[in-house]
Amino acid sequence: MQLIDGKAVAAQIKKEIAEEVALIKAKGGKTPHLAAVLVGHDGGSETYVANKVRACEEVGFRSTLIRYESDVTEEELLACVDRLNNDDDVDGFIVQLPLPGHISEEKVTEAIDYRKDVDGFHPVNVGRMAIGLPCFLSATPSGIMELLKRYEIETRGKQCVILGRSNIVGKPAALLMMQKGYPGDCTVTVCHSRTKNIKEICRQADIIVAALGVPEFLKADMVKEGAVVIDVGTTRVPSDKTKSGFKLTGDVAFDEVAPKCSYITPVPGGVGPMTIVSLLKNTLLAGKKNDLVTKKT
Ligand code: GUN
Fold it and tell me: Can you tell me which residues bind NADP(+) (predicted)?
């Protein structure tokens, strides 16, 4: 069994991005600038956004954090999106999800100019990804593909099972795993809460991407010998063993599943760090305004 070290791969890619940013700056180019909008004080979102801002600093980007209390109105948030769309200084921005119930995530996502949508959540980017056109790829699935590539894991013709059908992981991951070429060319099955015989389906899989958000859902008896297991779960489970009072727990029962795998990602330190790196890559791309991705169509 080989552990897929997302932290190490992410550090390497950050180094590559930092070198490119240094070159841009040396040539008198514009420093890439990412803005992040955070609504409320959800512990998970606070951590994710703080990590994104820190990563920007590490590679030499500019970053701006815009905060709102959870009683912000949809109108105010949409006005903020509009300001960021029209701020030439900001190359790309994200609105951290989830948003409070009184705000429509769809409305906010659609209001973002797709040329600044470095999360890759806008329907234009999702649609372009679906048909294999240049676009901002959704960060987590793109991070998974990068890990498969860097570890030279064979995907062509493999059976891939995706657990979860969310718009930000399951669906885009399914599209990327089935895309033409490497990494891709998989035969993909998507399982969700209504799927029957999940255990039997998983046992057929050469590659499993677990993105259900159910801690330790995938057990050893659901995994075939030699499978590749990618764990996207990041549930904060209460724990009296950690200083923070919680433990980040994946969707895979790691201790029992790992011995059966050819490759497996840990939680934390697997997919998580790669998600942030994908965001940095998209921001770098957004900064190069002449790219196909950001050209107005
Ligand atoms: N919430 C969970 N993951 C993400 C992400 O990648 N981007 C945003 N904006 N919100 C999230």
Answer: 164-166, 234
Active site residue ranges? 52, 96, 119
Q: What is the mean pLDDT of the chain?
A: 96
Q: Give ranges for CATH 3.40.50.10860 in the chain.
A: 28-121
User: Which ligand 1 atom lies nearest to the CA of residue 96?
Assistant: 9
Which fold, 139-272? Rossmann fold (3.40.50)
Annotated binding-site residue? 262: no
| Measured distance CA(136)–CA(18) in Å, rounded | 20
Rounded to two decimals, what is the model's pTM?
0.94
- Ligand 1 centroid, distance to 97 Cα (angstroms): 5
CATH number for the region 28-121 comes to: 3.40.50.10860
Query: Length of the chain in residues, anyone?
Result: 297
Q: What is the pLDDT of residues 204-245, one digit of tens each?
A: 999 999 999 999 999 999 999 999 999 999 999 999 999 889
Buried b (16+ CB within 10 A) or exposed e, 71-102: ebeeeebeebbeebbeeeebbbbbbbbebbee
Confidence of residue 293 (pLDDT cuts 50, 70, 90): confident
Nearest atom (ligand 1) to Cα of 119: 7
Which residue has the least CA distance to atom 3 on ligand 1? 97
For a ligand 1 pocket test, name from 49, 94, 137 the mutation site with the most ligand atoms within 8 angstroms of its C-beta: 94
